[in-house]
Amino acid sequence: GLMHLQGKPVCSFDPEGLIFAAGVNSEMVKLYDLRSFDKGPFATFKMQYDRTCEWTGLKFSNDGKLILISTNGGFIRLIDAFKGAVLHTFGGYNNSKAVTLEASFTPDSQFIMIGSEDGKIHVWNGESGMKVAVLDGKHTGPITCLQFNPKFMTFASACSNMAFWLPTIDD
């Protein structure tokens, strides 16, 4: 099938592969059932439009309850996948050049991470919205890729070089 959406859409499948979300015009999330997407979205969530940036990505959490909206500005948003309510807006990382930075959930869906223009990784608790860490991977440029291993607590971050991370628990 083919969909005609306005602007520059972004999209993501839910973990079950049955629902997909389409972000339209950096202001609306539309949810479609893959089996009947030609009938239109079964839910539409209008977000507050921000003229200073564009949406660059959508990601469902592994439990399917949350959607992360990435932007090319200095913030990302976490929304409830069922109601569309904005749960948290995370900021405080460098992105003054409007770089497309990838945000990710940890495999347990408890933490949200994003790279930044200065090569650091910022980590927030998804429930409280509090920033819990800033990691320095010695990156030489903006971290444009941040991916978690879906089975193990490891992740990779990349700019022009790549770092592999194996978190440890300090006593």
Automatic annotation (TrEMBL):
One GO cellular component term noted in the UniProt record for this chain: Set1C/COMPASS complex
Gene expressing this chain: Wdr82
Major localization class: nucleus
Protein name: WDR82 protein
GO biological process per UniProt: RNA metabolic process
WD repeat residue intervals: 93-134
Keyword Repeat: yes
Domain of life: Eukaryota
Location(s), subcellular: Nucleus
Family of this protein: Belongs to the WD repeat SWD2 family.
Keyword Nucleus on entry: yes
GO molecular function: chromatin binding
PANTHER family: WD REPEAT-CONTAINING PROTEIN 82, WD40 REPEAT PROTEIN SWD2
SMART domains linked: WD40 (SM00320)
Alphabetic keyword roster: Nucleus, Repeat, WD repeat
Any Pfam family hit: WD40
